[in-house]
Structure formats: C-alpha cells, structure tokens
What we know:
The complex is a heterodimer of chains A (383) and B (167).
Chain A: E1 4-15, H1 23-38, E2 47-51, H2 54-57, H3 67-70, E3 77-80, H4 84-96, E4 102-110, H5 117-122, H6 139-152, H7 156-169, H8 184-188, E5 192-194, E6 197-198, E7 207-216, H9 217-223, E8 229-238, H10 252-265, H11 270-273, E9 276-278, H12 284-293, H13 302-307, H14 324-328, H15 335-347, E10 361-367, E11 374-382
Parallel strand pairs in A: 2-3, 2-4, 9-10
Antiparallel strand pairs in A: 1-7, 1-8, 4-7, 5-6, 8-11, 10-11
Helix pairs in contact in A: 7-12
Chain B: H1 13-18, H2 35-46, E1 50-54, E2 61-62, E3 78-82, E4 85-91, E5 94-96, E6 102-114, E7 122-127, E8 141-146, E9 159-164
Antiparallel strand pairs in B: 1-2, 1-3, 4-6, 4-8, 5-6, 6-7, 8-9
Bound molecules: zinc ion (ZN).
Amino acid sequence: MSKVGILGIGIVPARALSSDVSYRELIFEAAVKAYEDAGIEPFDVDTFVSVSEDFNEGVSIFDEYVPDQLGAVLKPVHTISGDGLYGVISVAMQIMTGMFRIGVVEAHSKASNVLNHLKILELALDPVYLRHTGVDPRFLAGLEMRAYMEASGIDAESVARAATHQRTNAIWNPLAAYPGKFSPDDVLLTEVVAEPLTEGMVAQPADGAVVVVLASEDVIRSQKKNQAVWIEGMGFYTSEPSFDTWVWERATYAELSARKAYEMAGISCPSKEISFAEVDSRYAYKMLQHIEACALTDGRNPAQLLRDGFFSKEGTLPVNLSGAHMGIGMMEEATALYQLAFAADQLLGRAGRMQLSDPYRCIIQSWRGLPTRSGATCILSRD
Amino acid sequence: MEPKVIRGRDLKRDEFEKALKVEYHPEARYAWDAGYAVGKFLEGLKQGKILGVRCRRCRRILVPPRAFCELCFVPIDEWLELKDTGTVNTFSISYVSMDVKRLEEPEIPAVIEIDGASPGVGILHKLGEVDDPKNVKIGMKVKAVWKPEKERTGAITDILYFKPLEE
Ligand SMILES: [Zn+2]
C-alpha cells in the first residue's frame, strides 16, 4: 500500500465576513493556490472530496455545487460530512487502494451567510428528546463542560485560559480571523451562554476556504525532492450513540481515534514522540479535554500544564499554536484543515513567528461538533 | 402474472391525528453573498441587460456569468452585453405549483439559450404570453419581458418571463 503525503495546500485567510466573494469564488481562490503549491493542474487530479454539511450551505446535495470551482468537472466528486479530517482520511484511503494517485479535499465556510446559527444547530438535536428545552442548544456544551471540569479537577479560569492561549497564538497566524490579547478574567466576564460556559469560551464563526492536495509516495517523491509531509496515522470514531449513554466527562471518540492513529504510526508514548499538537477547540474546555484524550499529559492535569506554559511555543509540547477554533475561527469542517495546513508548515519550517525548532511529528485532532461524539485524528511527519 | 391486489380500507383523518408524533418546524435562514460574477450579472438585470462573460482561453461565451471558466480553470474578466432574446432549448408544462397546488393556468419553465452566448449555454426561466402551451416548441425564438425599471431589484425575477417572438 502506498504511503500518502501532502502535495500542496491552498488557503484563503479566515475572516468574519467575505461579502465581496461568493462561496464559489472563495473556493476557487483556495483551489488555484493549492494546485500552484502542488505544482499540478486540476486536470491531474484523480478524485475529489468536498467536506460540507448541507444545512450549513442552505443547499442540499452540496457536492453538486463544487466541481466548477475545484477544477473537478467530469471527475469523481463526492461529499463527506463530518469534518475536514474525515475528508483527508477518505482521500488518503482512496489513494492507498492504488486506484488513485492524486486526490483533493476541499472544505470551506460561509458562516456569515447563515442568519440563524443556533436554529441550524438545533436541527442536529434529537427532535423527540432534546428540542423541547427551548433554550440555546449550546446548553449541551454547558453540561459537558461542567461534567469535564468536575471529573478532571479543572476550574472555569483554566478554561478561560485555554481561550486566551489560542487567541494570543492567533496573533502570529496571518490566516486567523480572531487574534486577541486579553486575560482569563475578561473571558469569564463575557455573557453566560449556558453556565459554566460563557461567550468568550465559544469560537466565533468565520468564513474561509481550504484545499488540500494529497498524493501517493511516487508522485510526491517526483515533485517534492527535498522535504515532504506524510500522513503516518489516521483514525476516526464515533463513541456513545445517544445522549442517555454519553460519557460527558470524557471525549471517548478522540481517545479511540488518537489510539488508532498512534497505533498505525507506531507511536507507543505520544507525549514523548509528538513534537506538537493541534486539537479541536470549538469551546475552550474542549482543548483541555482533547489534549487529555490524545494522551499527551501522562496523567497530569492539563490545566496545571497550561498554566505552567507546557503547551506554549516555548513549552515541552506546544498545542494549538495556530490559534485553533478560538483564534482562527469556527469554520465548521474547514478549521481542522487550517490546523492541518499550519501543522504542515511547521514541519516544513514555514510557520513564521510561530516556528518551532525542528519539529518532526504532530497530531491533529478534530471533532464534528455538537451534538456529536465523533471525531478524527491524523499524525503527520516529515522526511 | 397479474399482481394480486390486497384491499385494505382508507384511513380517516382522525385516525392519523390519533397516532403519536412529534412535530417541529425548521427555521433555517440564509443570505448568500452573490460575489463578483453573479453580483455583476444581477446589477445588469437591474439595468435591463443580460450580461455574459467570455473565457479568453476556450472563447466560450457564458451566461449566467462566472468568475472563472470551469473547463479551462482560469479566471474570466471579459464582459459583454448579450441580447435579451434567445431560443428554447427545452421546456416543461407544469400544472402544479411549488406548494403543490393545482394551477388552472400552467407555468412553463424553460431553458433559454441566450442570443450571443455559446451554443448550449442558457439560463433557466419561464415562458409567458403563450396562447396555447401546445404551441411551445423546442427551437422557438423568445424575448425577455422585463419588470418596469422602477420595480427591478437586481434579481433574476427582474425578467418576468420570456415570450414567444413573432417570426
Ligand atoms: Zn474556458
């Protein structure tokens, strides 16, 4: 089976609004950049995946709306719903079959075009048991946050610190929409969404587009002679199926998918063998929960480690230096691919002010968001 | 072999109502950014013009316009004003409205190849001022009927319909 690597990535910087361009024009820009970065023409691509959720687009069967701007006319195209990493894994598996040599994953967000996000989120809730509460559907995050804090001995201030950690990191990420410098207290003082969750702990929506070109080893070796980034491990899992049986304090889906990816990559001690991590953080507490789920703390308290600078650029195991969801912006399926792009740049020594010295391997972890127990992970490494 | 018909009885309205169910009415609202190409097209409609674009590589003239050629994968920046006449490529005669009501007067959705655009390139609209739907034919020449200028909003509905063109 062929090894799969990244041949090129194209990104449109995330921003709160993008009223000057249509979603097609947004994706086209990312696609042009990706093919240029990959040194190919779209005609060279064998298979395309669009990662999107029809309710967020306002158009169903959305994959019918992507071929034009991706250069995918008269080519195999399909949608993967879930998250950007699911798309990466899907294309990687297609390439591993040997039937395809070059594959493309596209994810984008036109969140600014959705006028009532909470009603769209409500549509994901079970109509019999959950829609009757009549409250902001993010109460689910409130329930989860409380259970997690209780079980892990983490206070709200630490969660707020996770938010500022990412917003501050985003200052040095030119692709991020929400850089900011403030204190955990500022986060705690924002409006309450669903106690203990406050607005400052919730990632804000952003628009953007990202296109990732993956390819088999032979293609990459022939194009990128010096340095390449490889997908060493992959995993995606759905854990507890319904709310009645949710394990609220743990991100079991992330534990399982990380374990699978580590196993595939031959990693036995993640905290020692991983140079840095990018994890999902749609809500600030998720960063801490996902760090634990990815087995990066060796049983230590992630809040304490965060306070000690363990996850900072100068720390032992930097996490979410990209700014992640809190700093880059909440772009549904796309944010994880912005993180993947940042990670690839890190491995290639192109991360600018946030460049680490000699990173060689990282984990990227994603979550499908509320109200799911689904997520994926990828391990990337360089030559 | 003839299929066997098993007869039941019709369910009454109150029998449906007695069955337990959960009702929910979705409220999804969107406002899509038109962007550069579609935006300029809509602006043209407001002025009573049908605008198209030409790809510098394959030379196709496309309507509605787009910011890039999907076949050549290059940006498009050459704009031209097309005629507001065209040819029916295909059509249908519908007696059922969007909300599933019977229509006395049928609607006639049609694909209209706009004069000046490349063959096979057309916009989807409807036909009007048709005496008898039976007389509509593929290949029929049609012309846009516009809303009065003051009522135009920069939408595809600024064209009310296309009417048959006297030969
Ligand atoms: Zn062309």
